[in-house]
Amino acid sequence: REMKRHLSTMAACRVLYVVLVLAVAASEPSFRIDHESDVFLLDGEPFQYAAGEVLYSRIPRSHWRPLMRLIHDGGLNAIQVYVPWNFHEVRAAGNRHEYDFTGDKDLVHFIEAAGEEGLFVLLRPGPYICAEWDYGGLPSRLLTVPDIRIRSSDKRYMDEVREWFEELLPRVKPLLYVNGGPILMVQIENEYGSYSECDKDYLKTLEDLLRSHLGDDVVLYTTDGPDERMLKCGSTPTSFTTIDFGPSKTNVEELHQLWRRFQPTGPFVNSELYAGWFDHWGEEHHRVDSKDLMKMVKTLWNDYGASISFYMMHGGTNFDAWNGANIRQGVYQPTTTSYDYDAPISEAGRPREKWLLLQEFLVPNERVTPVWRKSGEYGTVTFEQAAHLTDALNASSIRSLKGDTPMTLEAAIEELGLPQTSPPVSLVAYRHTITQGLVKDKTEYVLHLCGLHDRAHVYVDGVMQGIASRQMSAPSHWEKSDQCGGGPDSVAINVTIPTPTTEGVSSPPELLVVVESLGRINYVNWRFVTSEDSNPMLTDLKGITGSVYLDQQPLTGAGSWATSPLPLTLEFLTSSLKYHKPSHQDRQGKVGPLSLFKGSVSLPGKYPRVKGRLPDTFLDMSENGWSKGVAFINGFSLGRYWNEAGPQKRLYVPGSLLHIDDTNELILLDTDGPSCEQPPCSFQVRLISEPIEQDAAGKIKAGEWIPGQQELSLRGAGEGEDQQLVKEQALV
After folding, report:
1. Closest Cα partner for 307 from 29, 692, 46?
2. Does the annotation mark 53 as catalytic?
3. How far apart are CA 243 and CA 228, in angstroms?
4. Could you give the CA distance from residue 77 to residue 323 in angstroms, rounded to a whole number?
5. Alpha carbon 680 to chain centroid distance?
């Protein structure tokens, strides 16, 4: 009897233990794929997500939460986000690699904030991200490794990836949904099927790395375009395959069947439903029709039960010259500073018609009044001081390397051990003394720059000779150089060199070439890579990447070239330059090309503020002859402007960069020099409340809001302020 009682007690304990285990398991968060029912299961319940792509590196930290609230209020329940490796990497002394996750780079805070605002997260850690970001998010120093094969099993590349992942992944592991955070899934690489390598061992290694750091419970996925080769090369048998396409692809069933060949079970997912498109300098502003977008959304959501991520939901801005570039048939295509993307939420953080239509469709019974950021108009800034960039080449902060030939920008930065600055170094100066033996009894020569990446200003003895550039979509200064082989990245430019017999000439002529990087190539489709040596992503070093010739004579000599990277830091802009009152009297001198202009504006406390911050504004570069250059506000790089190229004419200025009751310093580096047809000229810009767009033909088009642009701007709400958005005024 005692034995029976004992056995009965043990059986009851076992039952109780099983019940407790099941109860604990049921209470633990879970996210998985039900391959029998073809659905996601969130805590055991069928789940469908509508996500929006945002990139924190294009958005000031102060604007993260208002943006997330607007995304959530628009009916979305998730965001998808890339992690740019090169945005976080900082080069320390001795070329050790350290990483910055503070301030605007605080990825953990960004993800935590998304969860607190009711949004799940789909994380895309790369290591390659594309995203029209400089070099696709990869550190540009990798270009200096001889014959390295990025995005492959190349051991040298994978050693770098392992170091990066060992820093990144432990930070995000506690943020996985299974660990109580908002991250549902993690992507392997990015559209790898579009790349030329098709290295399955590489994908397997990345997958193993992710699982070793994040655990076996995490859902890993891949994303590739609607093409058999892309899906074949970009997918793995042990991760979840998703596809991407935009509203222009009208035969959804055909794409669904194609995707099913690589993912036979599980829910249909479009990981990049293109809500708009990006712009290159020299092109018209791109738009995607709201009706076409919504037709695709309804088909995917209702007919296929698909989960969707809109690329982009909010594009943001390529501050600090972080923009990338494309290349097509040798023509280089740099991306604009604005990454507005014609997204449902504009660059300035305002809801467009697409946002309203998405909200109406996704949450018809839970619609809330949208809240968006204010914009302000702060008047005119007059530039009372000017300087010339070349005057600072001998400053103590500028370090140079001597060599027989020019060094690339990346090689010089590595050799000098320079830290990663903000903004990244995008200018490099080359100085060379032309030996008298090369200068004959003539004065006119042809200078050949082989492998020019991307745009150069050429001087001889301080006299501007002209601008040279590789062949590009934007207005280019490209003349074919047969001496360099006639490629699209080599150029010939006519120069005038005084002869030794010229009166007043007593020393050999000095050649100065200042080269600007306009963004490293971030994407190359496999169709345009015809051989192992023809992938432009492996060769897009910046500066002068080949030889230099004067007519047919090579310009070489022991230590005859000085290569000087020019970091446009606040210290350099304010301390290394000698400013003076600007004048147009000498167009080849102090206020010609490569000129800097400094001005200031005070913003007294009378301006309305939201949580202590001034409203956002726009720097209007379309007036007063400003040409092409970079703008800085209080030492922060707003990015490039390029009026001749378009379509962008105004630069977005977040209010968080502005000082209240204090002086705000504005500096322009106008690389081509402002034009002045009828002196006296006005060295001024305006800080205004509305953006405008301009196509490549020069036709001014209405900006964000019509009609009633000004009224709607002033009625824009700040955090916590309820304002009614009138749908009729939100039509673009």
Report:
1. 46
2. no
3. 11
4. 28
5. 38
- Helices and strands, number each (H, E), in the chain: 13, 38
| Separation CA 314–CA 346 (nearest Å) | 6
- DSSP E strand stretches across 566-683: 595-602, 617-620, 628-633, 636-642, 650-653, 663-670
Question: What is the phi/psi pair of residue 678, to 5°?
Answer: -135, 85
Rounded Cα distance, 387 and 236, in Å: 56
User: Which residues in the chain come in under a pLDDT of 50?
Assistant: 13, 15-25, 93, 586-590, 693-732
Identity of the residue numbered 587: R
pLDDT at 718: 35
Could you tell me which residues come within 8 angstroms of residue 85 by beta carbon, excluding any fewer than 6 positions away?
126, 127, 129, 137, 138, 139, 164
Q: What is the pLDDT of residues 658-682, one digit of tens each?
A: 998 889 999 999 999 998 766 667 8
Is there a contact between 716 and 373 (Cβ–Cβ < 8 Å)?
yes
Instruction: Name residue, tokens 């703008």.
Output: 631
DSSP reduced 3-state for 445: strand
| N-terminal to C-terminal alpha carbon distance within the chain | 85
Alpha carbons 542 and 413: distance in angstroms, whole number: 11
Q: According to the model, what pLDDT value does residue 424 have? A: 86
Rg of the chain on CA atoms, in Å: 28
- In tens, the pLDDT along 457-503 reads 999 999 999 999 999 998 889 999 999 988 899 999 999 998 866 55
C-alpha angle 229/234/240, rounded to 5°?
125
pLDDT computed for residue 682 by the predictor: 81
Six-digit token string for 15 = 């039952």
Provide the pLDDT for residue 440.
79
pTM recorded for the entire structure: 0.91
CA distance 388 to 429: 13
Which pairing describes strands 693-694 and 628-633: parallel, antiparallel, or unpaired?
unpaired
Helix axis angle, 64-73 relative to 107-116, nearest 10°? 40
User: Which element (helix H / strand E) includes 455?
Assistant: strand 455-460
Catalytic residue, from 189, 191, 693, 704: name it: 191
> Cβ(39)–Cβ(304) under 8 Å?
no
Q: Distance (Å, rounded) from C-alpha 692 to C-alpha 690? A: 7
Of residues 89, 117, 132, 272, which has the active-site annotation? 272
The single residue listed with the structure tokens 């391959």 is 35
Please name which of 591, 462, 571 lies closest in space to residue 514, comparing C-alpha atoms: 462
Q: Give the pLDDT of residue 46.
A: 98
Determine if the peptide bond prior to 454 is cis (ω within 30°).
Answer: yes
Place of tokens 């209020």: 73
Contact indicator for 458, 468 with CB cutoff of 8 Å: yes
Would residue 272 show up in a list of annotated catalytic residues for this protein? yes
What gap in Å lies between CA 319 and CA 274, rounded to an integer? Answer: 23
State how far the Cα of 450 lies from the Cα of 443, in Å rounded to an integer: 22
Quote the CA–CA distance of 283 and 694 in Å, as a whole number.
9
